[in-house]
Design goal:
- Helices cover about 25% and strands about 25% of the residues.
- The chain is of the alpha/beta class.
- It has one domain: Metallo-dependent phosphatases (Purple Acid Phosphatase, chain A, domain 2).
- The strands form two sheets. Strands 1, 2, 3, 4, 11, 12, 13, 14, 15 and 16 form a ten-stranded mixed sheet that branches. A six-stranded mixed sheet has the order 5-6-7-8-10-9.
- Helix 3 packs parallel to helix 4.
- The radius of gyration is 20 Å and the shape is globular.
- The relative contact order is 0.13.
């Protein structure tokens, strides 16, 4: 089982806390819902670089970095792999990105989606999980500054529309039991994915991807299905400053995906609430059921999903919506 989490920003106030407390663990509140996972994934939304105490640019509120000790905090939380392919990968330029990779490697956290070279950026991450080969490809579909195709960053960050992606995914399909895409894209704070995202997702799924894990909107979005293959359009915030004016930036879920050779991917959602920027798993059954209702409502806009009973950890299964059977009709002859 692999547990997937959303956006993690170890800069800003969280970064300042990391600078003052070497044992700080901002993810401790969700430990019980992913402790038994074989691997734990998050989207690392901030660089991890030495900036002499700076964790947010004094010139731009949307430019931030975590300190190097952020990598140690991820390791304490038993995070095993991250995507670094996102619109903040270049916040502190190439030096910040390279330092991020060095800090992750220092604590043996695997990373995908960026690299010191283009080949490294587009190289998939291959995991061995209980005898299965699971390949993760990480991509970004959004960029902050300038036109991506004209920026130096294009040599270091994997772009979702790059023609190399098709080749990477086809090759991964030949050599893997399961292929997963970490997709950073869509529009912030929207309840449903835009057309651009849906078109790309349709294309990726036609290439044989088994599951897509989405992030960037900072709110949870619905779960769609291509047959029995799930698309989680947005896992929302995990460790991120929640906005007071937008309630759905304060809640989201850890997705637990179970893999078995020859079987469909099984999905469970484990909701949590964010206080400030720290997530805490929902322990109250009523609160978990309320989140389940909301997630199923969001899923209706992307084709629909069905839920199940909430367990002791507040988690619940999510499955494809059963096809609607046509209503039986009675012929005129039969009615006579």
């Amino acid at each position: 089982m692999i547990a997937f989490g959303g956006d993690v920003n170890l800069g800003r106030a969280c970064g300042q806390k990391l600078l003052t407390d070497s044992n700080y663990d901002p993810l401790r509140g969700i430990n019980r819902v992913w402790a038994d996972a074989d691997a734990r994934f998050v989207n690392l939304e901030s660089p991890l670089s030495e900036q002499r105490g700076e964790t947010q640019s004094p010139f731009h509120a949307l430019v931030f970095t975590g300190p190097p000790s952020g990598a140690d905090a991820l390791a304490r939380a038993n995070v095993t792999l991250v995507s670094t392919a996102n619109n903040h990968a270049w916040d502190y330029t190439k030096r910040g990105l390279v330092e991020t990779l060095e800090n992750l490697e220092r604590v043996t956290i695997l990373h995908a989606g960026t690299g010191r070279t283009e080949d490294e950026a587009y190289r998939p991450l291959v995991l061995q999980v209980r005898g299965l080969t699971i390949t993760l490809v990480a991509l970004t579909h959004v960029w902050n500054l300038g036109v991506f195709s004209e920026e130096e960053a294009r040599h270091h960050v994997a772009w979702a529309e790059d023609p190399r992606i098709d080749t990477v995914l086809r090759d991964a399909r030949k050599h893997s039991d399961f292929v997963i895409v970490s997709y950073h894209g869509g529009e912030e704070y929207l309840a449903a994915p835009p057309t651009r995202t849906r078109k790309l997702v349709n294309h990726l799924m036609r290439l044989g991807v088994d599951a897509i894990i989405g992030h960037h909107p900072h709110v949870p979005q619905g779960i769609a299905w291509f047959g029995a293959r799930p698309v989680l359009y947005s896992l929302g915030n995990l460790v991120f400053d929640a906005r007071k004016d937008l309630p759905w930036t304060h809640s989201s879920f850890i997705a637990r995906l179970r893999f078995e050779r020859g079987m469909p991917v099984q999905v469970e959602a484990c909701p949590y609430r964010i206080n400030g920027y720290e997530p805490t798993a929902l322990g109250e059954p009523d609160a978990a059921r309320a989140f389940e209702d909301q997630l199923l409502t969001l899923s209706a806009s992307v084709g629909g999903s069905e839920g199940g009973g909430v367990d002791a950890q507040g988690c619940f299964p999510v499955t494809p919506r059963a096809p609607v059977k046509p209503r039986a009709t009675v012929s005129k002859l039969a009615r006579r």
